[in-house]
Amino acid sequence: MTDNKLINLVNITKSYGDNVVLDDLNLYIRENEFVTLLGPSGCGKTTTLRIIGGFETPDKGQVIFEGKDITKTAPNERQVNTVFQKYALFNHLTVAENIAFGLKIKKKSKEYIKDKIKYALKLVNLDGFENRMPDSLSGGQQQRIAIARAIVNEPKVLLLDEPLGALDLKLRQDMQYELIRLKNELGITFVYVTHDQEEALTMSDTIVVMNQGYIQQIGTPEDIYNEPKNAFVADFIGDSNIISSIMVEDKLVNILGANFPCVDTGFGHNKPVDVVIRPEDVNLVKPEEGIIKGVVTSLLFKGVHYEMEVNANGYDWLVHSTSLFPVGTEVGIQVDPFNIQIMNKPESEDEEAVELEI
Questions:
Q1: Which of 38, 76, 319, 342 has the lowest tally of Cβ within 10 angstroms?
Q2: Which residues neighbour 348 within 8 Å (Cβ) at sequence distance 6 or greater?
Q3: Among the three residues 226, 258, 280, which one is the final residue of a domain in this structure?
């Protein structure tokens, strides 16, 4: 699985003054992969992207590209192009001139540039926009021009730094599908930075969850959502009930004073653990049928489901259900053993959660 590594970041450390942004980070990215660096502001994801692009140099470590050390190679000498959140289009140039900018610097022929402009505009579904000015375009159209300008240079890697952050929700969702289509059609590697969990889950082949300069977990969207490695990942990716519990023995965990069957083993006997249960995995039943009983304390209609809070055994459970249980209803709570995720409690807040190889 590791013979098609395109980018390999080895022991990368980066500080700004006393602030350590990346701490001995190791990460590899495969060819033709859509990798998303996901995390809160200040976690180091944009710095990682800028180091790949050559806009920042690490204090320690190496950037390996196709087996060669490019740590100190200038950005314009890397087979990498970047699309920024602010688009960075030249407002005094037409769309065609914006797209051609990098090709002219490379002294490509007029015929070659003309063909490339036509190809790129067709790829981003903006045929016929050659002579338009950037300020006459919508935000989504400007973003697609920025992407077209990047892809005409035929990079091996396209870096995207929160490129949809300035768009409204509907446009953002449309552009997510556009990016997936482009990635599949172009067959190039996408490295995408965002703090938006839904974007990451929708588009990625692989998600790298970061916090405080460390990688917390690497995996497919399904792995990250269904099998979070620690409470930070579980809390950051979607809504979760995260409850301090006791692992009684293999396949049995005590949650809020009640024993719930689970499928996890190897945690020992009577050990403190964190339990993660997604809101959609909490089953509300008749009070006498539940493992514990509670009362519905709030109710919101979310379109595809109801979002409820249920106070049970001193904890406010977040529940998503297509069935309506009015406020004040007494209910029982059940959870399928397969939907109870057990995690070791970290020894400290900064503890790095996982091995970094994938």
A1: 76
A2: none
A3: 226
> Which value, in Å, is the radius of gyration of the alpha carbons in the chain?
24
CA atoms of 307 and 211, how far apart (whole Å): 28
350 belongs to a structural domain:
no
Q: Based on the domain organization, do 311 and 177 belong to the same domain?
A: no
pLDDT of residue 3: 57
Q: What is the pLDDT of residues 170-224, one digit of tens each?
A: 778 888 888 888 888 888 999 999 999 989 999 999 999 999 999 999 999 999 9
Q: Is 48 helix (H, G, I), strand (E, B) or coil?
A: helix
Q: Provide the domain limits for residue 256.
A: 239-344
DSSP secondary structure string, 73-123? --GGGSSEEEEETT----TTS-HHHHHHHHHHHTT--HHHHHHHHHHHHHH
Indicate whether 234 belongs to any domain: no
Structure tokens at 267: 């945690």
Select from 65, 79, 71, 72 the least CA-distant residue to 30: 65
Q: Which amino acid is at 22?
A: L
105: left (phi over 0), alpha (psi -120 to 50) or beta: alpha
Number of domains in the chain: 2
Q: Each residue of 88-133: pLDDT tens digit? A: 788 899 999 999 988 888 888 999 999 999 988 988 888 889 999 9
Alpha carbon 91 to its chain centroid, in Å, reads 31
Asked if 64 and 174 sit in the same domain, the reply is: yes
Distance CA 288, CA 26 (A): 51
Beta bridge partners of 210: 215
pTM, entire model: 0.84
Both tokens assigned to 317: 């459970």
